Amino acid sequence: MKAIVYHGPGKIEWEDKPKPMLLEDTDAIIKITHTTICGTDLHILKGDVPEVSDGRILGHEGVGIIEEVGTAVRRFKPGDHMLISCITSCGSCSYCKKGMYSHCENGGWILGHLIDGTQAEYVRIPFADNSLYPIPHHMDEEALVMLSDILPTGYECGVLNGEVKPGDHVVIVGAGPVGLAALLTAKFYSPGLLMVIDTDENRLEVAKQFGADYGIDSKQVNPIEIVKGLTEGKGADVVIEAVGIPATFELCQSLVAPGGIIANIGVHGKPAYLHLETLWSHNIKITTRLVDTITIPLLFKTVQSGKLLPQQLITHHFALNDALYAYRIFGHAAQEKALKVILTA
Ligand SMILES: NC(=O)c1ccc[n+]([C@@H]2O[C@H](COP(=O)([O-])OP(=O)(O)OC[C@H]3O[C@@H](n4cnc5c(N)ncnc54)[C@H](O)[C@@H]3O)[C@@H](O)[C@H]2O)c1
Ligand SMILES: [Zn+2]
Ligand SMILES: [Zn+2]
């Protein structure tokens, strides 16, 4: 079969690899129908995730059809259409029992990281009963690729950890796919004010189309003054960090109102300042989280009822065998006005 294979920083190839085989009786082999590229794949390509070894197939998102299951897989059978969670979970370790699949002692984020991933014609999924979700009939399967990672991430790490409530003043820093996913799912709770900060005009425009009340270009204006101006000088009740650099985490600390919550989503590679000299008396909370994908079943229902339209996040389509070209386009997301790209087998 063909796959996107990592060969060290800056090097990926679309090349032949052996078709995966069942290794454990809890495994399933999936024939990929649609997959995508994540910002995290670009981090891997830059060499930011050194655990990814030479020869690894990338990708941790996708949908497909079961080709084969191990003898212990009880819930699914060949021919079933499945959504693949970016997080593999055994369902029985102490973290899985708490719903913290991200820290599963036998899984976690391993796809396209520590084991071969989804940017391939076939993928092996460990603990299939717990790591795959059946797709109901008549659903737009390519749109559901957004439920593998982006939507649960925005929802769990941003909206749920940020405890967004009706009437809340919410600011999201970063209007990439993850920040926009937080925006779409924050709307479930009817916040009073949704403000989005970015430096990319196009993404701010998209945020407004998706329901943001204000798109704030932090290259043009002082975002702290604008947010304070919109919130009677108080700042926001919920501040969601969806960039992952020290400057934006520090900005969040200037945007949060007394009693508010900073919900960090961004993957940080460098230390950032925590301004306790100001915040010690502000009764704030700061949360961090690696996505658990435990809300995938709930998000399925919101898609089925038309409350959530994940296809809004898709801007580009390619054939799976054009994956290298898709990487080039996605690597220049700002110029190409790209959010999520779909690769179809
Ligand atoms: N916690 C988790 O489980 C989890 C899961 C998936 C992704 N992530 C992380 O979430 C973050 C966002 O992911 P994404 O795919 O949307 O990334 P992205 O790179 O597509 O989007 C980031 C956005 O931030 C904007 N930005 C950059 N610098 C800025 C600045 N100084 N001020 C304001 N805006 C700025 C960019 O213009 C871009 O629109 C990343 O750090 C990613 O690694 C975390
Ligand atoms: Zn991802
Ligand atoms: Zn587990």
Explained architecture:
With 345 residues, this protein is of the alpha/beta class. It has two domains: 2-149 and 292-344, Medium-chain alcohol dehydrogenases, catalytic domain (Quinone Oxidoreductase, Chain A, domain 1), CATH 3.90.180; 152-288, Rossmann fold (3-Layer(aba) Sandwich), CATH 3.40.50. It has helices at 39-46, 94-97, 128-131, 141-144, 150-160, 177-186, 201-209, 223-230, 246-255, 276-279, 296-304, 323-331, 333-336, and strands at 2-6, 12-16, 28-36, 62-69, 81-84, 122-125, 132-134, 169-173, 193-198, 214-217, 236-241, 256-264, 285-288, 314-319, 340-344. Helix 9 (246-255) links the parallel strand 11 and strand 12 (256-264). Helix 5 crosses helix 6. The longest helix has 11 residues, at 150-160. It is globular, with a radius of gyration of 20 Å. The mean pLDDT is 97. Bound molecules: nicotinamide-adenine-dinucleotide (NAD) and zinc ion (2 copies).
Can you tag this structure with a few keywords?
single chain, 345 residues, alpha/beta, Quinone Oxidoreductase, Chain A, domain 1, Rossmann fold, 2 domains, seven-stranded mixed β-sheet, six-stranded parallel β-sheet, 27% helix, globular, binds nicotinamide-adenine-dinucleotide, binds zinc ion
Q: Given the helix and strand composition, which structural class is it?
A: alpha/beta
- Tell me the total number of β-strands: 15
What is the CATH level 1 assignment of the largest domain? Answer: Alpha Beta
The average pLDDT is 97
> How would you sum up the global shape?
globular
Largest sheet, in brief, is: 7 strands, mixed
| Terminal-residue CA separation | 12 Å
Query: Would you list the SSEs in sequence order as H and E?
Result: EEEHEEHEHEHHEHEHEHEHEHEHEHHE
Q: Any idea of the CATH topology of the largest domain?
A: Quinone Oxidoreductase, Chain A, domain 1
Q: Strand fraction band?
A: 15-25%
Low-confidence stretches: none
CATH architectural category of the largest domain: Alpha-Beta Complex
How many helices? The count is 13
| Overall tally of structural domains | 2
- Determine the CATH superfamily of the largest domain: Medium-chain alcohol dehydrogenases, catalytic domain
Radius of gyration: 20 Å
Q: Give the proportion of residues in helices.
A: 25-40%
What ligands are attached or bound here? nicotinamide-adenine-dinucleotide, zinc ion
